[in-house]
Amino acid sequence: MVKGQAGQRPTRREASLAARLRDIVMPPFPEPTGPVRAGFQEWLDEIDDELISSALTLVDALPRAVRALLHADHGAVDELRVATYDVQGRCRHVEEQGFLLLAREAPVAGDLRRLVGILRLILSVDRTAALVRHVAEATDHVDATRMPQEIRTTLEDFAARTVEVLRRGIDAWRQRDGLAVHEVNQLDESVDHLQVHLLAEVREQVTDPAELVLLGLLARYLERIADHGVAFAQHACFAVTGERVDVGRLEP
């Protein structure tokens, strides 16, 4: 059971983790017929592959969400909603399998770093799925076809660069590229600049309060997705070297 410090009640996050661990049903352990860790690497590879596959689904979904928004394609919103909820379901499966693997095999060294990275990154994928869904659902709240062309163009550039950061971060994790983190962080800084540029254009050209708020939220969603891309590169570096590189501003 996860506990808080002595004399303190567990935090909400700790209580949630404890409940999740309690809900995991441990399968019966068969009598060992070979090496104790037989099948460990295959199991680890499977959940890592599922992590990567789920993340790449969102790399494809984000441009579709932005296109749906800019072209008022309401039909695409439901498809994207289903796709992102499916990704979140896969995230829960990866998380459960990761905890089971941790409990059964007690990995160490590089295997432990890799598994810890998977368990942390699957949360980034889950949050990214929610953010992509928010972008798509904005289509139902604003008619982006009537926005100034300059803002539409900047939003397209912003989204394209965000996708680039996310894809490059995933590639770094998949290839175990421990040196990619600085490159990905530089790409993320360009996303931050586009966010500032978009918000400046919005302040100058948009007068409708609802549109102002929504565009501000969209800028935040895209910036956060890029931050999750940086997280992939950070964990790739940690998995390879055992050292943490403090870049970006990723928040819970």
UniProtKB/TrEMBL annotation:
Biological processes per GO annotation: intracellular phosphate ion homeostasis; negative regulation of phosphate metabolic process
Annotated Pfam families: PhoU
Domain PhoU intervals: 60-138, 158-234
Matching InterPro entries: PhoU, PhoU-like_sf, PhoU_dom
The protein's name: Phosphate transport system regulatory protein PhoU
Organism expressing this protein natively: Egicoccus halophilus
